[in-house]
Amino acid sequence: METLTKQTGNLNDILQLVSFEIGDEEYAIDILKVQEINKQLEITQIPNAPSFVKGIINLRGTVLPIVDLRTKLGIPQKENDGDTRIIVVELNNSKTGFIVDKVNEVLRIPASITEPPPKIISGKNAAMFSAVAKLEDRLIVLIDLEKAFTEDELDELNSVNS
Predict the structure, then answer these.
(1) Which domains does the chain have, with CATH numbers?
(2) Which among 162, 160, 161 has a CA at the least distance from the CA of 49?
(3) CA gyration radius, the chain
(4) What's the pTM?
(5) Residue among 32, 35, 25 at smallest CA distance from 74
């Protein structure tokens, strides 16, 4: 995530992020990766897909894989509701949708209020957490979605996209 890597350079840089919720936690991704945000659409399940792939959607004539971020993050499932959204992002040169519980806001924050994630975060998904933003009344975990997947998983997503 080009914008997030700037935090190691000039701390006066401004990060532009889209924040969202999954469960009780707030996360954010680089706004430059976001193509659009949609209400929950009808998802068609595909057999033998990876467990984190909820299915596919037809978005204005383009078939997109839909990733359930709850599953990818190991968070228990919940029913989708009126706040559920699909964030469409450019991932590895193709579009992918990510289901989130709720989209909150677009943030412009100085890189100086971020720090690397705590070392206690480990496991196969640890690389996806690029930083933690310390706002006055809350912490927001910054995610690099491209690092959330292994090369094999990215290949599987691309095969759904083609």
Answers:
(1) 2-154 (2.40.50.180)
(2) 160
(3) 15
(4) 0.84
(5) 25
